[in-house]
Amino acid sequence: xxxxxxxxxxxxxxxxxxxxxxxxxxxxxxxxxxxxxxxxxxxxxxxxxxxxxxxxxxxxxxxxxxxxxxxxxxxxxxxxxxxxxxxxxxxxxxxxxxxxxxxxxxxxxxxxxxxxxxxxxxxxxxxxxxxxxxxxxx
Length: 138
Prior knowledge:
alpha+beta, 4-stranded antiparallel sheet
């Protein structure tokens, strides 16, 4: 059942990426989403100045991503270019064209993998908003 839930989550991310193919990138608000601000359980984890080479995956180790999060919570990934001023967080996937994107390709307990297909190395600061699942999801 746990593998089925993970497969469903990865499939949803993949299918969502297909429907967004060739659309403009999504820009998130500067801070936390309004819906998230009312939830005291939200944790934001930051990684600053991470360079992901072109056409390479990068694995982030995030202990806050627990089995409960995978089963009934959520993880949202955001990034901002280090050279950008004003910290305009962009929710992943960041899509420049159908084949040029920065996206989450895997999510597991304690880990999230981001693939860079932008055509060049990208040095960015990353934010992961983690909302734990309910007690019944454990």
